[in-house]
UniProtKB/TrEMBL annotation:
Keywords in alphabetical order: Ligase, Metal-binding, Transferase, Ubl conjugation pathway, Zinc, Zinc-finger
Ligase keyword on record: yes
Name used for this protein in its record: E3 ubiquitin-protein ligase
A GO term for molecular function: ubiquitin protein ligase activity
Xref: InterPro entries: 7-in-absentia-prot_TRAF-dom, SINA-like_animal, TRAF-like, Znf_SIAH
Taxonomic superkingdom: Eukaryota
Catalytic activity: S-ubiquitinyl-[E2 ubiquitin-conjugating enzyme]-L-cysteine + [acceptor protein]-L-lysine = [E2 ubiquitin-conjugating enzyme]-L-cysteine + N(6)-ubiquitinyl-[acceptor protein]-L-lysine
PANTHER family: E3 UBIQUITIN-PROTEIN LIGASE SIAH2
Annotated organism of origin: Bucco capensis (collared puffbird)
GO process annotations (BP): cell differentiation; proteasome-mediated ubiquitin-dependent protein catabolic process; protein ubiquitination
EC code: 2.3.2.27
Length: 184
């Protein structure tokens, strides 16, 4: 199905659906979580789309930055999104607040590479919350935007913490997350 965009595999018809779900040449969807954006396009067009259609997303340069999520006490499901640019790549930083079950809210923080799964394997990220004699750290390999945020949240393959933990590290309802990207 994706031969026109570069996939050169020839498969038996029974193997095609499974491959098409993971094919690196399938169109990329808009990686913004929670957005009702239906955009799809090539990997090369993702950053251009984000800069034009989602102008509110801030981009910071450098391997070490602070991702500031403001007003974490906002009710309901909320997404905070930011871009980090380093090593010639763009990374999408996402903090998502969800109500997992009645009255229990959880925060999920993750880093996605605007790139392929293979490219993502070349990097590692560290998320760190620092507070009064406390530190909470998560280190992992970024996911490709092909995988998206929802898969990571579903599997808790990200930094997960509840509202009580968030308040231990928050300052006036704002949460600063130190983000470090490194190469492997």
């Amino acid at each position: 199905q994706y031969a026109t965009t570069g996939c050169s595999l020839t498969l038996h018809h029974t193997e095609k659906p499974e491959h098409e779900d993971i094919c690196e040449y399938r169109p990329y969807s808009c990686p913004c979580p929670g957005a009702s954006c239906k955009w799809q396009g090539s990997l090369e067009a993702v950053m251009s789309h984000l800069m034009h259609a989602h102008k509110s997303i801030t981009t910071l340069q450098g391997e070490d930055i602070v991702f500031l999520a403001t007003d974490i006490n906002l009710p309901g499901a909320v997404d905070w999104v930011m871009m980090q640019s380093c090593f010639g790549h763009h990374f999408m930083l996402v903090l998502e607040k969800q109500e997992k079950y009645e009255g229990h809210q959880q925060f999920f923080a993750i880093v996605l590479l605007i790139g392929t799964r293979k490219q993502a394997e070349n990097f590692a990220y560290r998320l760190e919350l620092n507070g009064n004699r406390r530190r909470l750290t998560w280190e992992a390999t970024p996911r490709s935007i092909h995988d998206g945020v929802s898969a990571a949240v579903r599997n808790s393959d990200c930094l997960v913490f509840d509202t009580a933990i968030a308040h231990l590290f928050a300052d006036n309802g704002n949460l600063g997350i130190n983000v470090t990207i490194s190469t492997c």
